[in-house]
Structure formats: structure tokens, C-alpha cells
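Quick question, first post here. What does this chain look like in 3D?
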Amino acid sequence: MKIIYFDCFSGISGDMVLGAVVDAGVDPDVLSNELAKLKLETEFSLHFQKATKHGITGTQAIVETPENSHGGHHHKHDHGPSRHLSEIFDLLDTSDLKTSIRDTAKQIFDRLAEAEAKVHDTDKAKVHLHEVSGIDSIVDIVGAVIGFEQLGAEEIYASPLSLGRGFVKCAHGMMPVPVPGTMELLHGVPIRQTEIPKELVTPTGAAIITTLAKDFGVMPNMTINQIGYGAGTRDLDMQPNLLRICIGEKSPSNNIKHRHDPALGFSDSIEIIETNVDDMSPEISSYVMDKLLEHGALDVFFVPILMKKGRAAIKINVLCSSSTRDLLIKTLLTETTTFGVRFYTADRVILNRDYVEINTEWGPVRAKRGYLNGDLIKTIPEYEDCKSLAEQNSVSLQSVFQEALRKI
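> Answer (accepted):
Ran it through. C-alpha cells below.
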């Protein structure tokens, strides 16, 4: 299995990702030709140049638009055009890009909008995306997705993200580093605080890696075939301002398993945390579930059990990655009445998946498609999309769901 590992020792930004994929071998002309399919209303130019940081040479991506005609692209916190999420989705939907590229880019922008909406206490459909909706940021995100496809990435992993400190000027004024939108994206993600008084992780970079990375931590066992360095625009005094990506074949490991079995499909390992509770209010249980999911749990479920002396109780089950296990254990110990938890590693079988958009008479619904050995075996409409359309149009949830199933 071909994977990409992001070594974020100096953080991550959208232009550093673009530079890294080109440095690793993606043809810049292919990137430009694919990005031209976006049909942006404003012209832009994309070019790449070599840059040396503390003796290490990488590739710097430069996106020039009327918004930053001075060149030298980086993630700016100035006042460019402000788009809503629906406008960006329309831009992607009317493009000639492959469906898989459009859908992945949508996931990244959707995650950005959710984070900004939470920070500003509004709905993601209403939030203004400000700097991350500028043409250069759109090019960064869509270009990154194109680059990953060109590299043949099946999975993406990343190191803990290195954060800077201080303040930066944004559309809303002076903001602490990381800016609130970026910080919201980092829920459940391992980070490493540095003393560097700069913004190392930008909203665009955070959105890309937190949406697409399967796990964060040490580099998985792998055979490295390609290495790329993406250069940032700033020169850091303490270390090279570079993003390193390693591309290669993932190897079997006792800690991180991922294999393909013709009889099963893809399988890997996850962490399972359990605890039995017999003295906690049901209202608290609901709160605990929300907190666990907020802190990165893949799934949470409660099982009714009967304990000694006939006491009715629940067993709390939490599925998670190894990178979020310790935080989730802490959440259980601090938010429930339990005095201890159990945890262990379990193998699981999962389907390859992607997303497709289905047009119903009430609006678009995303649907998740599952593949076994390359064959499509199921398509399931997304509940939240169906619920939203049902509420907006005053129709039953079943009507929307069944209509989506008919259009599959």
C-alpha cells in the first residue's frame, strides 16, 4: 500500500504542501492544467522555485493573483474576498475536475467551515471563510488533493504538528497563534509547542492534514521511495522552515497493521477503551459521549450490563486511534464516576470508501460508497444531509432518504 508521511517539524501550510508534492515528483504542468479546470473568475499563476533553508533545499510554491500581486505566496491574514461554503462548493461542482478530487476538496472546506462556525458561534452555511476562501487558498487545497492523487497515495499519516506562538493580524484583528480557527481544527491531534514566534500551522494546512491523515504519530514502518521538501516563505532562526513528505510502501508492523486479504478486504488495528459504570446519571452519559467524540473518538457506544449483586450498569466502549487514546482515557476518568479503565488493541476489517453527491428534488445529498477488492458493494446516503433537507423542506426524513436511494 502506497502511503505519504508528513513530517511537520516546522508546521504545515497549504503552499508548503504544494511545494512538497512537486519536490517529490508531481509535474507542475499537470497541477496547473488540472487547476485550470476550476474555472476561477479571477486569473492566477502558479509557479515553483527552489529555496534553501538552513542548508536544505526544497521547493517553494508561489500563487500570484490580483490579491497578492507582489508575489511570494504564503498564508496571509489580510482582507481578500470572503466566500461562503456554498459558493466554494458551487465552484467545485461546476468545475471539470474528477469527482474524487471535488469530493475530497469539499471535505476539507467543510471541515474548515465547521471550525470557523464553532469559533464564531454561527452555522457553517452562514460563516464567512475570509482568508481561507481566497483564490490562493483554494489553489492550495485543490492543488494538494490533485498532488496526492498524482502521487498515488492510498493513505496519509503525519507527525505531531509543531506550533508557533505570538500574535498575527487577521480579518478580525490581532489573533493569538495558532488562530482560533486553526486551534479548533486541532481537536484530538497531537501537537508540539515550540518557542518560535511565528504562525507555523495555518488554517489551510491544518484543514488539509487533519481531514486526510489517518493517524498522527511516529512514522509507520515503510519502504521510502520518494522524499519531498516544501519550503515556507519565512526564514526561521532556529530551524529550517520546511515540510518534509516521505512516500513509499507501508510495511507490516506489530503496532500498526494494514493488510489486504482477498477474502476480507482491508484491515487495520484500532484501540478499544472500556469501563463499567453503575452509579452515574443517564444525563451525564450523554454528555460524556459528546465529549469523547469531540476529543477524537472514532465511535462510542453504551452496553447495558448486570454487575455483581444484581446491580444494573452500563459498559462504555470507545473506539479510537493510538494517538488519541490517552486523551480519551483522561476524559473517561475525569468526566465519569469510574476509577479505572481497560484498553487493548483489536483488528478490524474496513471497506475502501469515497463520497458521491446525489441530486434529489429537495437538494444534494452526499452518499458514502464502500468497495471490496475494488468492487462497489454498497452506497449509503449521509444521515445529516437527509435530515437537513427534510427539515428545510418540511418533508419526512424517510422521503428524502428513499429518494436518495432511488437516485443511486
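Confidence is low (pLDDT under 50) at residues 70-80, 253-264.
The radius of gyration is 22 Å.
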